[in-house]
Description:
With 447 residues, the protein is of the alpha+beta class. It has helices at 2-31, 38-41, 45-52, 54-57, 60-73, 76-81, 84-92, 97-100, 106-114, 116-123, 125-131, 134-147, 151-158, 160-163, 166-179, 182-185, 190-198, 203-206, 212-220, 222-229, 231-237, 240-250, 404-412, 433-441, and strands spanning 257-263, 266-268, 275-283, 290-296, 302-309, 317-318, 323-325, 328-335, 345-354, 360-370, 376-382, 384-387. The chain folds into five domains: 2-34; 45-147, no CATH class; 151-250, no CATH class; 258-387, Immunoglobulin-like; 390-447, Dockerin domain (Type 1 dockerin domain, Orthogonal Bundle).
Amino acid sequence: MLRIQSTKTTHSMNLLIFLCYLTLVFILNMSCPFVVDTSAQEPSLAEKVFEKYRTFFQREDIKELLPTALDVLKQPEPQKLINPETIDLIVRNPDLLKTYVDSIDDDFITLLKEDQEIQDFLRDTDVQTLLQDVAAIEELETLLMENLVSLAEKIHERYLDLFMREDIQAQLPILLIELKDPEIQKLLIPETIQLVIDKPDLLKTFLPDIDDEIIRLLKEDSEIIAFISDPDVQLLLQDPEAIDELEMLLSVPVPVVVTVKIVPASIVSPMVGEQLIITVDIADGVGVAGYQGTINFDPLALQFVALEHGTYLSGNLLPIATVVENNQISFAQISIDTTATTEEGTLVTITFEVLDAKASMLSLSEVIISGLAGVEHQVIVENAELLEPPKTPWDVNNDGRVNILDLTFVASHFGEDNPPPAADVNGDGKVNILDLTTVASHFGETT
């Protein structure tokens, strides 16, 4: 009886142990997905050194010298000598490094002698341990390569397929040049860029001469929208040096960018009946063989008198008639056998008669600058403005002084029903003794 009970007890205990074992296995299996491998979170030696000296590794001189130095230190012979004692000895006497590694760069020796930051770097026990481990050095090299590329290099690699598109290659050179302009740079902040992304037409406000194709791309092209929305791209656009580097990486050819401008850019309008003479000048013109353009003016303020071509082009010139219609003057000239010998000069001189001495604009449109064989150059245009004369009506001829010329001009229109505005000094619609006495009261003054 005792034996039977003992056997039953043993079986019961075995069953209980077995059930506990199954329960434990179940619990362990269920909990495995939630077990955190803390060792996986522990950074490697190379990662620790990289994070500790990330700013140090960003220095331009270190970026230039370190890859070569690390490559040398991985070699078997230097590795035999690398230990804390040797490293400390070299930090104290950098010239000894040549004894151990004769191929080491002299610039690195100079840094060891003069640069406190690199001395502290080499005295770091983590750094000394890393330099004794070829695998750790190689891991650090990988981290440096992956994380310390320039912003331009990142953008170049990330968007290379986009940059290879023909439509982008056609627009990119001139756009990058315009974005480096100091005035445009002031506007290139994330808020403004986002505003342009939301409403691409606003770009015309900042870059009036920008190609409409770029506006269309910003509206319709998801690849372009993603590109310009990239924070790294926005950061690059705020750095002209980074833009220069991107241009170099892309091997973007430097385009011929010609400036065509109205001279003077700002002038006080002459008096009614007098002539206004302006020129349309060219600057930075290389290999120019032809030009065309249109001057737009206010027909209520000015009346076209004459246009004369300058001597910028020479050789066998093809005559092209000037066309005057309403508020536009279209002009063109071409040399069929030679290009301009200078980069600067006057394309045309235009004479107007002043109908009303008021503020107005003179602007250029449809400007094309061509080389031989129909090669079109990029063009930047600069317009001009006419300013209203200062409010000193007694200086009738607007020559800066009140004298007998002003008196005789008013007297010559005395009593007329429709006098010129300048003769009606007080603006009451007629020329009489009041106008004469007003001029006389300011006689001898300068304005």
